[in-house]
Design goal:
Radius of gyration: 21 Å
Distance between the termini: 35 Å
Helix content: 40-55%
Oligomer: single chain
Largest sheet: 8 strands, mixed
Length: about 425
């Protein structure tokens, strides 16, 4: 099987949508010999920050010498970003071979009226490949929620991490912070340890109650003390236990993510679960990458790509732009999904930009550019709908060059995925 055919096989399952529940994935994994049971995991759930936490943790573990698997979702540029080993995407041949051997099991289950979704299958392939490659530890990011997320078929992990909990995916997870937190806390299991980022008191109460009920120690990022030395649009530098840590991820919210990782490392070290040195923390933080999170794509003019897509993430973006790029007028290219809280997000960005160009995103859930533009009117001086992200970028980039503006692309990770290759090609010519 070729790599291209493997990708087609995987995407053919997209039409079955996303359905919470573990019964289907358990049946598939059973036919595969339960590869997940041969692995050790650090399981990460949350509304915002989990991608950055996963990347930071993975980077530190690699520097410590552990053969480290990483599963993240969604990808930005290349599908294989989802499944990594020691910071590198798996090879095209490894993915093709895994699909060739396991996809017949999906078809077998379909004959029994058990329909496997795309995310469930990708999850199973991740378990299969990381098990086959004998990873020492896998940093595993949930998809949506936690309790009924198909990543939650694993046995008690080395550590469960809950990053910032906010309002998102309400149709599936519930309409209140407490209900969403309950879903996220579904990954906390007995005979493990739990870690949490700083939370709203409602979410924190649920997390504390869950940890107590499960009888597991709870470590909190708010108990980690750091001294911020400097923050710029390209990096943050801070001191932790006498060590200067350089983080190439911009924004105060990334320092919170870093504190969450430091809390997790403390939990793993104290419990004798893993051994992670200060030197590996220093090296791992310095080498961490997470595209489309306040990512500087160009410097003259300044071009920033950010995948914030819910009110919590948008607020972090707005605060970061205000703090780190205060003296520059800004133009924005925005695309959002129709099932996101676009109204609240737009209100949080009010007056941040002198002009907003609304675009369609290549995704069936995309909010139409014209509809998004209507929502934006009254919140920004100039609003227009262009439709094509590429056309919007060409227009906005030329204007940013001419008028000395900062150009920001935001609203959806799917938009970032679509436009990032074009930006890289255009700005690196």
């Amino acid at each position: 099987m070729t790599y291209e055919n493997a990708i087609k096989k995987i995407h053919s399952l997209l039409s079955f949508g996303s359905r919470p529940g573990l019964d289907r994935i358990k049946k598939l994994l059973s036919l595969m010999g339960n590869p997940q049971d041969k692995l050790k995991f650090i399981h990460v759930a949350g509304t915002n920050g989990k991608g950055s936490v996963c990347q930071l943790l993975s980077s530190v573990l690699i520097c410590e010498g552990y053969k480290t698997g990483l599963f993240i979702s969604p990808y930005i540029t290349d599908f294989r970003e989802r499944i990594q080993i020691n910071g590198e995407m798996i090879s095209q041949s490894d993915l093709a071979e895994a699909v060739e051997k396991t996809f017949p099991l999906v078809e077998k289950l379909r004959e029994q009226d058990c329909i496997i979704t795309e995310f469930e299958y990708i999850m199973a392939v991740e378990f299969y490949i990381h098990s086959l490659k004998k990873c020492d530890v896998v940093v595993l990011e949930t998809g949506m929620g936690g309790l009924l997320d198909c990543t939650n078929v694993i046995k008690p992990p080395l550590c469960s991490i809950i990053t910032t909990v906010g309002i998102d995916h309400t149709a599936v997870l519930g309409g209140t912070l407490e209900k969403i937190a309950e879903q996220k806390c579904g990954i906390i299991k007995e005979n493990s340890v739990a870690v949490t980022s700083k939370q709203d008191f409602k979410a924190m109460s649920v997390i504390e109650d869950t940890a107590k009920a499960k009888g597991v120690p709870l470590y909190k990022s708010e108990d980690v003390t750091v001294k911020i030395i400097k923050t710029t649009i390209e990096e943050s530098v801070f001191e932790y236990k006498g060590e200067k840590l350089r983080l190439p991820l911009a924004g105060i919210h990334q320092i919170e993510n870093a504190k969450t990782v430091l809390s997790a490392i403390d939990a793993l070290n104290r419990g004798g679960i893993l051994e992670i040195s200060k030197g590996s923390i220093v090296k791992g933080f310095k080498s961490a990458k997470n595209p489309a999170r306040l990512e500087v794509m160009g410097k003259s003019p300044l071009v920033i790509l950010d995948g914030a897509h819910n009110p919590n993430g948008i607020k972090a973006l707005a605060d970061s732009l205000c703090t780190l790029v205060p003296h520059s007028d800004k133009i924005c290219i925005m695309g959002m999904m129709s099932d996101k809280d676009s109204v609240s997000s737009i209100e949080l960005l009010e007056n941040t930009f002198t002009e907003v160009i609304c675009v369609d995103v290549e995704n069936p859930r995309s909010l139409k550019a014209e509809e998004l533009a209507q929502e934006c009117k009254g919140h920004f001086k100039n609003v227009k709908a262009v439709g094509s992200p590429v056309s919007a970028f060409d227009y906005a980039y030329e204007k940013a060059q001419k008028d000395g503006l900062c150009l920001v692309i935001c609203g959806s990770l799917y938009l970032c995925s679509e436009i990032r290759p074009y930006i890289l090609n255009k700005l690196n010519k």
